[in-house]
Design brief:
It is a single chain. The protein has 460 residues and is α+β, with helices and mostly antiparallel strands. It folds into three domains: 8-165, Phosphorylase Kinase, domain 1; 170-366, Orthogonal Bundle (Transferase(Phosphotransferase), domain 1), CATH 1.10.510.10; 377-442, no CATH class. Helix content is 34%, strand content 13%. It is built from 17 helices and 16 strands. The chain has helices spanning 8-20, 28-36, 45-49, 57-62, 74-80, 128-141, 172-177, 186-205, 260-265, 270-286, 302-310, 330-343, 354-361, 389-394, 430-434, 444-449, 452-457; strands at residues 70-72, 89-92, 97-103, 114-120, 150-156, 159-165, 210-211, 220-222, 228-230, 237-238, 247-248, 251-254, 267-268, 412-415, 423-424, 438-439. A six-stranded mixed β-sheet has the order 1-5-6-4-3-2. It has a two-stranded antiparallel sheet with strand order 7-10. A two-stranded antiparallel sheet has the order 8-9. Helix 8 (186-205) packs antiparallel against helix 10 (270-286). It is globular. Bound molecules: adenosine-5'-triphosphate and magnesium ion. Magnesium ion (MG) binds at residues 93, 218-219, 231-232. Residues 387-415 have a biased composition (Basic and acidic residues). One of its GO terms (molecular function) is protein serine/threonine kinase activity.
């Protein structure tokens, strides 16, 4: 961790005790907090990151007492996932592999029987512990219908795991960009955009606002009814306090989604999330990835390519996903595109607030000027998982459940502002960690061009 005076051992000794008996509250301090009930205030991640008073490890554990988060053992999570069986692997991102599992009373008395997703920290990851802690602190305390529910965690020896409610339809990224998935209908896309916007609005409007910082299609998970929930709070940050207008941070996020001023200055605001929301909205409209190296020249960067057409109703059809086969409300699409345009403004102050984004999007669901549909069925033979656009959109396939995937797109980046030396780095997979950091300039284009994952995909 490199945090002076902050002992993981003491933190977890305390933390584990409390978490082991969430209902009874093992310690006197736990009982004290249990009594306080809903009067609890959310503890900041920065509080936990700062080892000095007033925040002690005990305070950190206390902040989770009333949240009903379970502390699991490795043996229990092994039992829940058939010993992390490869057949239950449902995905893999920067943090590590994700398995489907099942928990019930047999595992833990009183535990509601339910499927879960178990995320296992890749132990060679550089930022792993900190991201794991951020996830536990934020998701342990924040509850909202559009945030994925954290059921528990495991902290045993060097192992760090997270246990979430299982989201039956996986990530939005899978549905928009992967073969095997049928093209999402227009109203489902709107529903997803609205759900995700509500999640962000909740974070931004909280008593202690939270900046999500890694809003992207792969971090929007979908339940069986396509209700969208935000996941991955590993990079989340407490918003500016008092008179401050921004939070200064290292530049971390994902290429193609991070706001340009944030990349250039390291100044983080809730408007950085609004920009990222604009990128995802554009992905929903166009069915294209924010960065796609398989496309020609200027089409590789979705925002730069689409921006000129977004505010022009006569040219918007150039941007719209052909996988929709014209089955969308033209007026609704124009309004959504104009909204995306605003979110993608270069000047953060011109970007709307998340709550007004929700207000703009919700009425679009009622617009019924959608042409009657003709069912199109086509089979695509190509085996390339990176197949994009038209062909992928028209592929008829399994619309349910999950498939194991390792990450191929959406590159996490990190740059150290303080040092003046700009580092660009993946963390998560072993391959990524071993790559030498690359130099970047703080401009979009330089950032996009220096994508290690892209290089890897091309065999570099
Ligand atoms: N709660 C969950 N329910 C169902 N599937 C999940 C859940 N959490 C994650 N997944 C699956 O695991 C995949 C990997 O998720 P993960 O958050 O680790 O990485 P990512 O978001 O794809 O990439 P990154 O590390 O860059 O954020 C997701 O795309 C999704 O398919
Ligand atoms: Mg994720």
């Amino acid at each position: 961790m490199g945090q002076k005076g902050f002992s993981w051992r003491s933190f977890f000794a305390c933390y584990g005790k409390v978490g082991d008996s969430p209902s009874t509250g093992g310690s006197a301090a736990a009982k004290r907090v249990a009594k306080q009930g809903s009067l609890r205030r959310r503890s900041s991640f920065s509080d936990a990151g700062n080892p000095s008073p007033p925040f002690s490890p005990e305070d950190l554990s206390l902040s989770l007492v009333g949240s009903n988060i379970h502390s699991f053992t490795m043996a229990e999570l092994g039992a829940a996932t058939q010993n992390f069986s490869a057949s239950l692997l449902i995905g893999e991102g920067g943090f590590g592999p994700v398995y489907k599992g099942y928990v019930d009373e047999k595992l833990r008395p009183g535990m509601r029987a339910q499927p879960v997703a178990v995320k296992l920290l890749d132990l060679e990851g550089l930022q792993g512990h900190k991201e794991w802690l951020a996830e536990v602190i934020f998701l342990g305390q924040l509850r909202h219908p559009h945030l994925v529910k954290l059921i528990g965690y495991c902290c045993e020896d060097e192992h760090r795991l997270l246990v979430y409610e299982f989201m039956a339809k996986g990530s939005l990224e899978n549905h928009l960009f992967r073969r095997f998935f049928a093209s999402l209908p227009w109203k489902t896309r709107l529903k997803i955009a609205i759900g995700a916007a509500k999640g962000l609005a909740f974070l931004h409007e909280a008593e202690k606002p939270v900046i999500f910082r890694d809003f992207k299609a792969s971090n929007i998970l979908l339940d069986s009814d396509y209700k969208a929930k935000l996941s991955d709070f590993g990079l989340a940050k407490d918003g500016p306090q008092g008179e401050d207008t921004h939070v200064s941070t290292r530049v971390m996020g994902t290429q193609g989604y991070a706001a340009p001023e944030y990349i250039m200055t390291g100044h983080l605001t809730t408007k950085s999330d609004v920009y990222s929301f604009g990128v995802v909205l554009l992905e929903l409209l166009s069915g294209r990835r924010s960065v796609d190296r398989t496309r020609a020249g200027r089409e590789q960067n979705l925002v730069e390519w689409a921006r000129p057409w977004l505010n022009d109703p006569r040219k918007l059809n150039r941007v719209m996903d052909s996988g929709l086969d014209g089955q969308y409300s033209v007026k609704g699409a124009q309004k959504a595109a104009a909204l995306a345009y605003q979110c993608l403004s270069h000047a953060p102050k011109n970007r709307p607030l998340m709550k007004s984004i929700v207000e703009t999007l919700e009425p679009l669901l009622l617009m019924d000027d959608i042409p009657t549909s003709t069912f199109v069925y086509s089979v695509v033979e190509a085996a390339d998982d990176r197949m994009e656009g038209d062909a992928a959109k028209k592929t008829q396939g399994k619309d349910d459940g999950q498939r194991a995937q390792s990450k191929e797109n959406g590159h996490r980046v990190e740059a150290t502002m303080e040092s003046g030396r700009n580092q660009h780095q993946h963390h998560g997979s072993r391959l990524r960690i071993r790559q030498r950091p690359k130099q970047i300039n703080y401009t979009d284009t330089a950032l996009y061009r220096n994508s290690p994952r892209h290089n890897r995909r091309r065999g570099a």
